[in-house]
Amino acid sequence: MASTRFDFSKWPPALSDTQLEALTLYATTYALSHSLLYLPPAQFQPPIPSSAIHAPLSLFPSPVPRRLFDLARRLQSSYNILYARIATDVEFLDKVMGTVEGVGRVDDFVGQLWMGWKRLRDEGMIQPLQLGLFRSDYLLHAGAGGESVSLKQVEFNTISSSFGPLSQRTAVLHRYLYATTSYYNAFPSMKAGDFPANDTTAGLVEGLAAAHAAYGAKGAKILFVVQPGERNVFDQRLLEYELLEKHSIPVLRQTFDQLATSTSLDLSTRVLSIAGAEISVVYFRAGYAPTDYPSPVHYETRFLLERARAIKCPSIALQLAGGKKVQQVLTQPGMLERFLGDADLAELRATWMEMWALEEGVQRARDAAAGLVLKPQREGGGNNVYKEAIPPFLDGLPPAERAAWIAMELILPPEGMGGYLVRSGNDAVRAEVVSELGIFGWALFGGADGTVEEKEAGWLVRTKGKESNEGGVATGFSVLDSILLV
Ligand code: ADP
Ligand code: MG
Ligand code: MG
């Protein structure tokens, strides 16, 4: 059937100033009432928080073609299994991320993590099971010419995949705005069925609870490892409350600094405990960036947790599997087959952009700079080099460090799409935007029989102003959003 093509440049529909003001009031009040919140910057906050601000948000959901949303969700199961298998392929990870042949040679952070993992492997690890709470991120790709819009993967996150609970709330916020205002009939074909359900909190917690059950100790607690001064606490706390309320599993929250003195590890059983409570699962919402390890003690704390019997989410192996280098190596012939056998992989592969190792194609990167992004092995936003910044960056990059970077073709989102974005304390602004879709999933794996227990776990949309290369709600460039199926 020939489907009518959605015209992204006509989005969002026009509203009057009065309508926009009313919608903003409905949205911010709803957000403040429903934990769609952030802590204000530290200078406005006593040590024990006494106030919160609403998270940055979009007033309208963003249009996503139904077939591409269905595709992204369908692929999640394959991605869950793929990354579970990568994390258990020690030979592959050593080669790609290790300090002998891999990225660890030139990237100190990757090298530190890999060497710590290697040392623990040589000593003998006690817990084969690993848990991943993943998020596969995509942009819509309009391409150069008249072809229809397609789904392209930005990256696959294996550590600290955030904004599950807040994006669930953003989806409900948009449903509420529609139910309350009908969006002033500015887009008359909109119907309630075009707002997909989004059950991230229950989905992600199901993964944590599955790992807790697999650990199998009555009275044990789950440990959340968090950053000091974290402003996105409500997104984390909502997981914690769900664990307690729906699964009767208590949670402890600690920073690496606190863990350096609070933990004890029984050397014969490798049971990890904190203040007398046994820890079943260690869930990292910290530890993904070098700044989380300001001293060798911080690395030693990470390795102590890795040594323990508790199930790690993620293990160091799974964290390394999430490196951009792995994403690039997967595009090489035969690599996907190594992990997923002879399943029909065309659909999965069709979501990838062209990628190559920077060390193997510096001139190619210079020539193609206008349509390219360079990425190092980092998470959390703000680390990539784009377009015209690439040639001068390459001029200054010591050749030995090229091995730490990959080159990736830029995804080209539909031109002219707009949004109404609201930041705490400000009026809504209409801006040209780009929306990034993330699909959450979890996997529990590593047992002797090789099975991977896995599920899709809801979705996220973050929308950024078009002029900003990077997304990242936490880094201040984008807002939380949801989906209107078109
Ligand atoms: P991080 O792990 O730091 O989030 P990403 O690979 O997600 O790194 O890159 C950060 C942001 O840069 C993305 O959210 C997206 O906005 C932009 N970006 C990354 N890769 C591409 C690409 N190939 N095409 C267009 N934009 C990209
Ligand atoms: Mg990202
Ligand atoms: Mg990332």
Give a verbal description of the structure.
The radius of gyration is 22 Å and the shape is globular. The protein is built from 15 helices and 21 strands. The model has no long low-confidence stretch (mean pLDDT 95). The chain is 34% helix and 23% strand. It has helices spanning 17-33, 66-87, 90-97, 108-123, 164-181, 200-215, 233-247, 256-262, 296-307, 316-321, 324-330, 335-340, 346-349, 362-367, 390-396; strands at 37-38, 53-54, 57-58, 62-64, 130-141, 150-157, 221-225, 251-254, 263-265, 272-274, 277-284, 311-313, 355-357, 372-375, 385-386, 406-409, 418-422, 429-445, 452-465, 478-481, 483-485. The structure holds adenosine-5'-diphosphate (ADP) and magnesium ion (2 copies). One magnesium ion binds at residues 137, 154-155. It holds the Pfam family GSH_synthase. Its cofactor is Mg(2+). Substrate binds at residues 135, 159-162, 230-232, 236, 285-288, 462, 473-474.
